[in-house]
Design goal:
The structure holds 2 protein chains of 2 kinds. By secondary structure, chain A is an alpha/beta fold. Helices cover 34% and strands 23% of the residues of chain A. Chain A is built from 12 helices and 11 strands. A 7-stranded mixed sheet of chain A has the order 6-7-8-3-9-10-11, with helices on both faces. The longest helix of chain A has 18 residues. The mean pLDDT of chain A is 90. Chain B is α/β, with parallel strands linked by helices. In chain B, 36% of the residues lie in helices and 25% in strands. In chain B, the strands form 2 sheets. A 6-stranded mixed sheet of chain B has the order 6-7-8-3-9-10, with helices on both faces. In chain B, strands 2-1-4-5 form a 4-stranded antiparallel sheet. In chain B, strand 7, helix 6 and strand 8 form a beta-alpha-beta unit. In chain B, helix 3 packs parallel to helix 5. The chains are: A alpha/beta, B alpha/beta.
Amino acid sequence: MPDALLSIEDLQVEFSTRDGLVRPLDGVTLEVGHGETLALLGESGSGKSVTAQAVMGLLPQPAGKIVGGRIRFDDQELTALPPQQVRALCGTRIGMIFQDPLSSLNPVFRVGDQVAEPLRRRLGLRRREANARALELLHRVGIPDVEHRMHHYPHQFSGGQRQRIMIAMALSLGPDLLIADEPTTALDVTVQAQIMNLLRDLQQERDMAILLITHDLGVVADVASRAVVLYAGRVAEQGRIRDVYDHSAHPYTEGLLASIPQQEEGGARLTPIAGAPPNPLAFPQGCRFHPRCPYAQERCRDELPELRRPVGWAPDQAASCHFTEEVLSRG
Amino acid sequence: MAEPLLRVRDLVTTYPIRSALLRRKIGEVRAVDGVSFDIARGQTVGLVGESGSGKSTLARTVIGLEQAEAGSIEFQGTELVGLSARQMRPVRRDIQMVFQDPYTALNPRLTVRQILSEAWRIHPDLLPAQDWDEEVRRLLDVVGLDPQYADRYPHQFSGGQRQRVGIARALAVRPKLIVCDEAVSALDVSVQAQVLNLLDDLQAELGLTYLFIAHDLSVVRHISDEVIVMNRGQVVEHAPTDQLFADPQHEYTQTLLAAVPVVRPWNQESAA
């Protein structure tokens, strides 16, 4: 994709921990196009949040470090910039929302002021203008009775409303890319649906790209057009979301989808993936999925598979599996 | 119909609202507000509702962690409301709970062996001390953990393994009813499926009865025979699982079901 907005190439991140050096990202490659919604999927420890942190220059310091690869955002090489400049750029052109809005909002400031703050600081708007713009934003994300409510403090809002406020803040400077890290995980199911719909509407309205990070394969299909599945710090599979879900090219994706209780087969036995996601301190040799993989052969134990398009397979889909053709033919 | 294992009638549980300054009681929240239902032996009853609906308070009242204000909880024909802590003790053994967060529900300073045998220390008539080691090995085997892990501490396990320890701990006293409060919610999808299968197997082998609380409706649909829907402290609908999902009667249930995300929405479009 030549006109990608965000392109991550062979990204490698290392953390130094008490137990030694770990590499939670080991060669992640992905692209987010202009105005596109990309779902970044994976279980705990797969590296999905670390990817977002690396892009935003938010890796824990001094423990975390990018040790290889590149991150490009709209012709700027983020990996070459000092962290301060990355954050300045992120403040204006990349917005971010997190799983837990309560801990991301400042409890001692009124929400209206918090939404207005970046407008005043970054755009130099006067208080009145900034407040008017904040009111508009809060209204757009669906906060009822805004004139009154914008003078309230974060604890006076419900979880869903707090997430709406976070979205208003992230959107305040009109970013080209919104990174949403598990935005609905802490919310009730009806609220989750509302927030997802809101994100989808905003994406279309503003022609904004979204990198939607989640462990829940169920919530993204309506919103995202493409998906990247991470496993143990590497891309297991990527492609159009419908191709990935209907014809998984990687045994891990296949296993994840089979683990979700499906509505049609109520009560039938689930087919989970054996074992648990590996600890980043001890990723297995060869293909990192091989200890849990029903297709694993001798080769998988020694040889790390590269991300590649399955031979004789038309859709724009790629998987890191030596036997992806076999996986596709069985599925 | 045979006598139900658990029979709850007009149950009310309230929390006091206290004034900021003098902590005087200035009102109350009726978290559970007149709830009635039965659970038959060997059944799994799912309990769903959004945060604040009172489902966790209901569960905590049933197992005796909260005091009921009014109403009745009959377990195997014995009335539990109004029992003293001492009178509750033998009943406690029969009703166990598996908690949401396997990271905080286990004492980090105890080994798995100590966690499991704690209950036998409290209920000495349950198992003579010389059989403890054997029973620890058996329990770990039942929940799919390597019996050699008995002397490890909780932090040495993954989330899914910890939840298995939590289930083994509940099984240690040979309960009849297990209340699972969001027991699989914190687990990764692939691991969650393993634990759901484990709960299924245990029910088949041991004839357990589950009260299964979860916010994830596809999980509840998968595991439950019947589903209770709560909203604002009250039961708005209680029906067999298939019937509830196929033909929800109450408006709130309909809203809830409509919000459940669909894994492959394109399949629905083509069907419609």
